[in-house]
User: Fold these one by one.
Assistant:
Number 1:
Amino acid sequence: MSKNLLQLQNISKSYDGQLILDDLSLDIHENSFVTFLGPSGCGKTTTLRIIGGFEKPDQGRVLFDGADITDLPANKRQLNTVFQKYALFPHMSIADNIAFGLRIKNKPESYIKDKIKYALKLVNLDGFEKRSIDSLSGGQQQRIAIARAIVNEPRLLLLDEPLGALDLKLRQEMQYELIRLKNELGITFIYVTHDQEEALTMSDYVVVMNQGYIQQAGSPEQIYNEPENAFVADFIGDSNIIGGVMLEDYVVRICGKTFKCVDAGFGTNKPVDVVIRPEDVEIIEDDDPKAILHGEMTHIIFKGEIYEMECRSEDGFEWLIHSTEMHEPGKKVGLYVKPSNIQIMNKPESEDEEALGVEE
Amino acid sequence: MEKMKKALSNCYLSLIVLFMYAPIATLVVLSFNSGRSRAKWSGFTTDWYLEMLADDTIMAALRNTLIIAFLSALIATILGTLAAIGINNMKSWSRNTVMSITNIPMLNADIVTGISLMLCFIAFKISLGFHTILIAHITFNLPYVILSVMPKVRQSSKDTYEAALDLGATPIQAFFKVVLPELMPGVTSGFMLAFTMSLDDFIITHFTRGAGIDTISTLVYSQVRKGISPTMYALSTVIFLTVFIVLMIGNYAPEWLSRRKK
């Protein structure tokens, strides 16, 4: 268990009377790759700006390595930010951009020169010192922005949707670059994105946010396999979210049928939400005795690696199914789900959670 | 057909330039005329220029004009740049209101501005002189500076300022190292504009100057009443050339600088 580098304690923030962050608390371990994931307006960028020192929280404290930095201005914090639009200085050469932080700290020029060389090598742009900013592509500018931040040897690097403006191919490349950089440098990364795939690919720890609340925080596997509520399940990947009733421990009733599951402790006859991932729904022969549900295939789309299909079960629910096997629309099939692939979640209790707008 | 069109449009352009510059050309030619007549060419001379240089009142007026133009442009540029940054950070309603208010002095007739400034100085018992001309010039220069800096301020994003802070710069360092260099083209052209506006102002200077101080424009005006001497043609030529050169620098310097950088 590594120690906490950054702690957010009961952070609240509102703009013009609108609550952006509501009593948010979070611990970030040293050397981890943490991602804030959520739709736009969920408060993830505001949280990052509070950590960076560009916004002050209305309430709550920010602790860095145990010390309170809530009132410390941005230029005194031991962390650096990679901005969404790179924010490179257009009137300076690449070398001057990278040297900016070091010159402010009055480091000797020979040290600065070595550092620039080292940083450019690290981001695979050797020999770019003299070039001007506008001669670079978006991906290259992004690398320079990262180089400019890391030469200062921050303990924490904040990245605000840094790959948002890049095309798909470049984005995937940069994702690997970032993971490599993080491992080479041993810096803690906090990454903000609305792209769930990016979050799952890169991070050790994902914080799913919506409407100023942390919906769930955990490892990518936990977030994907065991979503705690309907918002998380819906936001992370495709899923079938069905209203059901927990009859007793390990038994849940959905779509008028009884399913075995592996969850317990919800009580008896309790209404719950049930998540089943589309790749976990198995299509079998209609007369297979294993079949729990029976239905008719309705749609099919070829997606490359898989077929995305829909199947209407007898009670009228449209199941989303991913499979490598093709089943033509109109075919009568049986459906089966393994007990371990059925994820039970509490129904939303507060009005705030209700407002998430999950389709039943 | 294409050729005809081209020839016609060139013809048109030449005519416009001719009509615009014919009076100034006449002035320049007459400033080198050895006779006092405005109609007859009696030979080339630079005497009027020499006489102008030897004349203490003219030289004093020239000095006043240049000092006032430089100081008023400098102060207006500093104030106007800060104002533009401040205005840009306002909420859109107050930003629009303040922008319209700052634009009024530009649309206002000079004579109204001049008289009202004079009345204001008198009401506050400020004796008229060099300083009142300077204050008046700063006043009417400000909106021009704001107007030329504003587009640059709007273009530049808050991100680079925050990036500088993030890299350890204090707000003051961030302003001088990052924000100001980005605004520089707007700031330079604002300064040039203010300098030339101040240089050729007559009406406002006329009302806000005290007795015993003259700028070139007020001097020319008082000379006209006595009967104009060709030294005034020489002087006007000098003013024209100064303004012309300053404007050329203002227009081409930023382009030239950026080309040299690449």
Number 2:
Amino acid sequence: MIWVNVLIQGILIGGFYALFACGLSLMFGVMKVINLAHGDIAVVAGYVAVFLAPQLHIPEVWSFIIVVPIFAVAGYLIQRTLIQKSIDRDPFTTLLVTFGFSVVIENLLLEIYTANGQSVNIGALIGDSIHVSNVIYISYISLAVLVTAVVVLAALQLFLSKSGTGRLIRAVADDREAAQLSGANYRHIFGIAAAIAFATVALAGIAYGMMTEFAPTSGGVNLLFAFESVVIGGIGSLWGTLIGGVLLGIAQQVGAHINPEYQVLAGNLLFLVILGVRPHGLFGKKTAFS
Amino acid sequence: MCAAADPSINSNGALIEVSGLSVYHGQLCAVDDVSFKVERGEVLAMIGANGAGKSTLLRTIAGLHQATSGSIVFNDQDVSKMAPHRRVTLGISLVPEGRRLFTSMTLEENLLVGAHYANKGPFNIAKIYELFDWMHDRRRQRVGQFSGGEQQAVAIGRALVTNPQLLLLDELSLGLAPIIIERIYALIPEIIAQGVSVLLVEQDVTQALNFANRVHCLLEGRTSLVGTPAELSSEEIERAYFGSHLSGYSQSSHGGAG
């Protein structure tokens, strides 16, 4: 029975990893940019939810309603300016620029908000859970995050496969030049993909703040787990990212059950095994988002 | 037979006029001071050997390369500094060398991408399915598995659904069997009949001569010969194609066959 609980907790945390990682996977699949500031953007979203939303008289629980659109617009603008400029130079520049962006964000947050932990206030909901048995507890907030992750991934998958704009995103991912020859402004399409990535990671950042505490430097470790989810699931497959996140979550919970010190180690071991056995991931394809 | 559909020639200027165009790849001059016009309803064939600058020329007209000097005037508008996607909405569409399909997508999705920013005009996806009767049944299949000839047809369809006034065709025959090449070229009169002008690039001179109203030969980036297929002899074309020194060698060793 205790192992059932380990499995359930792994799945719950895995949903969060997938929500956190899908934007990273999208940006890499479409514009071949590894956004090293991805985790820090989530943290910024958490701070905006905690410090800005109350000033606008919006309860912190509902802050995502304004924070997510703001981050989508910011994502578009940052892509069209900073990231596009670095893509135009060469791929290494995008790594340096997003790494620099990450350092700047972390230090600005430390300067403004100090290193104290913060969390998004959700009132009494934080302690509520479903008691399945005396060893299995399912917290409402973790369940809500998992459901959100599945809904967001399903919506994103539907958008990419069925809508005209989604089709253009896939076209640009397949062959940027050929998409231009069909009349698509690839820079604009890149902007849309970045807007989606920033919006989803902002949502993930707020979710993280609801589940636990975050500090200015929380972005890095979550970025690592996001990377691992994407690589385990396979680049270019959104459902793969969900499975990757869930497997990573389960591995970490199993590790933690054996010895709390082994939590991160067990996840990293799974990541290394998958990387060795199936370098393109469990559901990876040669072309992105097909 | 393709000359029948060009009543509007010289009515209000050329569809596209390229003047003094030079294009560099770094230090290398790929296109050197080339000038030509394509009239409305005309098929102009750009011929020349490998590396003569034909593809670079087409890609520059489509906007994928920047011209170093010279101008490209399309419908009385200078487009030489314009981004490629804006040239598509003006009516210039390129079928690139090597097809360049969206290989993770189905046939229909490829056409839908082409139709997303389409101009008004005679072509839509249904019309493409009419033009290529095998496509409708296979529209839900991934194009990655298609044969070379089928992929070339999809590439032409994807360019046509944007409803271009000028269709640029880059090396349609590359890597295809002769029978497939013939079948694809047989479509050109139908395309012209819809009011589209064609600028095509070919290494296969026979095909080019069969379907073009005029021929423009490039040699090492420069214009080496201009004329109609009827007025050009095969010796002239050969000399313009390979350069006079090589042509002389070819005449002495092979008896000058064209």
